[in-house]
Amino acid sequence: MSDSFLRLCLVLHNHQPVGNFDGVFEQAFQDSYLPFLDVFESFSELKITLHLSGPLAKWLDKKHPTYLDRVADLVEAGRIEIIGGPFYEPILTMLPTRDRIGQIKSYTEWLQERFQAQVDGMWIPERVWEAALTRDLVSAGIRYSLLDDFHFINAGISANDLHGYFITEDEGHIFRIFPGSEKLRYLIPFAEPQASIDYLREKSAMYPGAVYAFGDDGEKFGTWPETKKHVYEDGWLSRFFECLQSNRDWLRTCTMREAIMSTPPLGKIYIPNGSYREMTEWSYPVARQSEFHRLETQLHEHEQWPAIRTFMQGGFWRNFKTKYAEANELYARMMFVSSWLNQAVQEGRNGISIDTARDHLYSAQCNCAYWHGAFGGIYLPHLRNAVYHHLIKAEAAINLAYNRDKTWIEASADDFDFDGHPEVRLANDQFTCWLSPSRGGILYELDVASIAQNLLATMQRRPEVYHEKVAAGEQEHHDEAASIHDRVVFKQAGLEKHLIYDNYPRKSMVDHFWDDNIALEQLTAGTALERGDFAESAYHAKIRRKQDRIQVQMTRSGNAWGVPLSITKGITLTMGSSQIEIAYLIEGIPVDRLFRFAVEFNFSALPANHDDRWFRGADGQSLGHLGTRLDLNSINQISLVDGWQKLMVTLNWDQVGSLWTFPIATVSQSEAGFELVHQSVVVQPNWLVSGDANGRWATRMTMDIERPPTALLEKVPQRQASESENDQDLSVCR
Question: What's the pTM?
Answer without folding.
Answer: 0.94
